[in-house]
Amino acid sequence: MAAETTTAGTTRAPQGEEPPALPADRFLNRELSWLDFNARVLELAEDETLPLLERVKFLAIFAGNLDEFYMVRIAGLKRRLSTGLTVRSPDGLTIREQLTRVTERTQELVHRHAVAFEQDVTPRLEAAGIRIVHWSDLAEPETRRLREYFRDQVFPVLTPLAVDPAHPFPYISGLSLNLAVSVRDPDTGTRHFARLKVPNNVPRFVPVGAGQAQDASGQATFLPLEDLIAAHLTSLFPGLDVVDHHLFRVTRNADLEVEEDRDEDLLQALERELARRRFGPAVRLEVTETMDPQILDVLVSELEVSPQDVVTVPGLLDLASLWALYDLDRPELKDEPFVPATHPRLSEGETPKSVFATLREGDVLVHHPYHSFATSVQRFIEQAAADPHVLAIKQTLYRTSGDSPIVTALIEAAEAGKQVVVLVEVKARFDEEANITWARSLERAGCHVVYGLVGLKTHCKTALVVRRESGVIRRYVHIGTGNYNPKTARLYEDLGILTADPRVGADLTDLFNTLTGYSRQTSYRQLMVAPHGIRSGLVDKIRREARHAAEGRPCGIRFKVNSLVDEGVIDALYEAARAGVPVELFIRGICALRPGVPGLSEGIRVRSIVGRFLEHSRVMAFCNGGEQEWWIGSADLMHRNLDRRVEVLLRVCDETAQRELQRVFDAAMAPGVRCWELGPEGAWTRLDGRDYQAALTAAVTEHAG
Question: Where is the Polyphosphate kinase N-terminal domain (predicted)?
Fold first, then answer.
């Protein structure tokens, strides 16, 4: 029987025949795929069509991303390598092979990054009146003023540390800039090595002007702090000859491993690990191209890194500090200011509406940052806190802002006598200390605070409000894809549903009983919940689409996630594609799936959009024989999300919300959109076209108007 071709253009095996086994080389490497994502960020920094300071912003984002990649992912690989286990990644590479390839790719990207800054962006900044200069470029009045600044503001916080038999090699803190200084005794000719930390509590870029970052015309000149210090080394080593100096930077393992014991206070265990994090082993040594080989040998030996861990950087180290330039008041060099719109169902003209009254009329799908977080989700919590009919508020907090209005509202609700239950995930990476502080503030206000579950991170974004209305209890819910953080809600693209659907309210009540008590519920009405239900639920729905294809019924799969790594989900997608199901994947970051492989994935398209806003929402859609099914939630398709986190996916039943999700996905996957598309060998190709995010901004603004 001849093979049958489906409308998706893929080939389906004849009925009764088993499809061939999936090939062994069907996965892409996740670490290299992440570096490809950061390369897309770098391409935006290289894009001459973007406003100049937006390019500076993407240079800073690239550098910050790479720091975190080494602190977490590379640190994890090195830890596994140290165990001696011969573990291979799903794409077949050993840990050592992965580290080698990552190092080669990183060095290539770091060089591109430096060239973009030094040879392209810096000359354009100078033409716009923003200069980064060296000490030798300064005139005498400028050097005199900066000598005074050094004497008053910098010199008192500097601590030269000698290295000799009486002074062991000092501890080098992670991500700090350091000067390796070589000095010589003029009497004996003996050379000595000293380390000098560039203080991080003094601005990295020192204004050369009279104490101001920029003048009235917007002109600004800066001297790197390390240049200012280097120009004054003789005052730090009086009586010695300063032979030379070299800049270096160390990245340390910052991935916490909290030993969670049911009998130990989680906060105490976490605080102990936070103290240890500062002393994690070095995983990367960044040096300038002019680094003296002998000094480099000393650093490699003392820091106990391998030559493979050394990254040579042309020009300035730590370009994450370029945020200081982006913060300059030069609006003509940035994107047009963006003001989020209030969702039209949450206001009448300029007058805010009761969120509760609105939700009794139907669900509201909010799309941040296009829809204002402050006038939707934040207002929902604030109105609940102030409403005398509200009996209880239950909420999960993974990350929030430093001056969080959400936390303030929860504290006010507790002080007003409402029952407030907050699950604060104190294990949220790099926000552990902030979350411990929030947890204690909430406890002092009388909130019931839970610190997460042993062995799991609670990553879901959920809020439940219980309200008495005419003697009847009604529950109102928010479930979203992003954190309860009003600052990142202006930068991250996220979705959320506000609903009074009693089925969802009952589900969330059950979920909070699991999070705060001993309930072991694993099945829900309108939710899929990890670690027990999301992978299996999605795989079942993917297989259902394959059955629809086999029966000639309408079929199709659309996923929007940050990362697609989970092998079980990927294999299910391959099987669906081979059955003739068209698959569209909108993935911002890591993708371990190979699209477009003959006989495996011809019907799968993978697209990435990286732009002004960080695409962050997670959406899953299934054609389901013509009865479309939409899900949104917090879970990326990765092992950690599906196996080691509490995640929630919500089925979106409101028809208006479904149509809005359909429009968003159609716009992202349409022809002629500026994006990157993934090929079968793992290469991303950039396609120029219209700006998808700008189009959404215009559409939401017009609709709100």
Answer: 27-133
Residues at the binding site are: 65, 399, 429, 492, 588, 616
Q: ∠ CA(226), CA(229), CA(233), 5° rounding?
A: 135
Query: Is residue 659 classed as helix, strand or coil in its secondary structure?
Result: helix
pLDDT band of residue 2 (cuts 50, 70, 90) is very low
| Beta-strand runs (E) in 240-309 | 241-252, 282-288
CA distance 251 to 105: 18
Element spanning 545, H or E? helix 534-550
In terms of domains, do 454 and 358 share one?
yes
Closest CA to 554 of 662, 626, 651, 608: 626
Task: For residue 532, indicate whether it is catalytic.
Answer: no
Give residue for tokens 């429009």: 663
Annotated binding site for ATP: 65, 492, 588, 616
- CA dihedral (116, 673, 6, 571) in degrees, to 10, reads 40
Total domain count, the chain: 3
- The total of other beta-carbon atoms located within 10 Å of residue 530's CB is 25
633 three-class SS: strand
Residues 8, 84: one domain? no
**Do residues 467 and 537 share a domain?**
no
Evaluate if residue 263 carries a pLDDT over 50: no
pTM over 0.70: yes
pLDDT tier at 552, thresholds 50, 70, 90? very high
Longest dimension (CA), the chain: 94
Q: Are 622 and 603 in contact (CB under 8 A)?
A: no
Cα 279–Cα 282–Cα 286 angle in degrees, nearest 5: 130
Residues 380, 495, single domain; the answer is yes
Instruction: Say which of 245, 343, 371, 459 is annotated catalytic.
Output: 459
Identify the CATH number of the domain in which residue 276 sits. 3.30.1840.10
Please tell me the distance from the alpha carbon of residue 511 to that of residue 461, in angstroms, as a whole number: 12
Encoded tokens for 668: 């992202």
DSSP, collapsed to helix, strand or coil, labels residue 662 as helix
Please check whether residue 101 lies inside any domain of the structure.
yes
Amino acid occupying residue 582: P
Q: Say how many Å lie between the first and final Cα of the chain, rounded.
A: 59
Q: Give the per-residue SS3 of 111-172.
A: HHHHHHHHHHHHHHHHHCCEEECCHHHCCHHHHHHHHHHHHHHHHHHCCCEEEECCECCCCC
pLDDT higher for 17 or 512? 512
Closest by Cα among 491, 692, 698 to 609: 692
Which structural domain range is residue 578 located in? 4-13+528-704
Cβ-Cβ contacts under 8 Å for 216 (sequence gap 6 or more): none
User: What pLDDT was estimated at residue 1?
Assistant: 26
Please indicate, yes or no, whether residues 374 and 418 belong to a single structural domain of this protein.
yes
Residue with tokens 């992978």: 535
Which are the contacts of 373, defined by CB distance < 8 A and separation ≥ 6? 340, 366, 486, 489, 490
* CA separation, residue 127 to residues 48, 120, 324, 428 (Å): 14, 11, 18, 42
Q: What is the CATH classification number for the domain harbouring 616? A: 3.30.870.10
Each residue's pLDDT tens digit, 93-144: 999 999 999 999 999 999 999 999 999 999 999 999 999 999 999 999 999 9
Rounded to whole angstroms, the Cα distance separating 140 from 473 reads 75
In a domain? residue 571: yes
Residues 208 and 223 sit within 8 Å (Cβ to Cβ): yes
Tokens 């940050």 correspond to 562
Question: 522, 543, 560: which is the final residue of a domain?
Answer: 522
Return the percentage of the chain with pLDDT > 70, whole number. Answer: 92
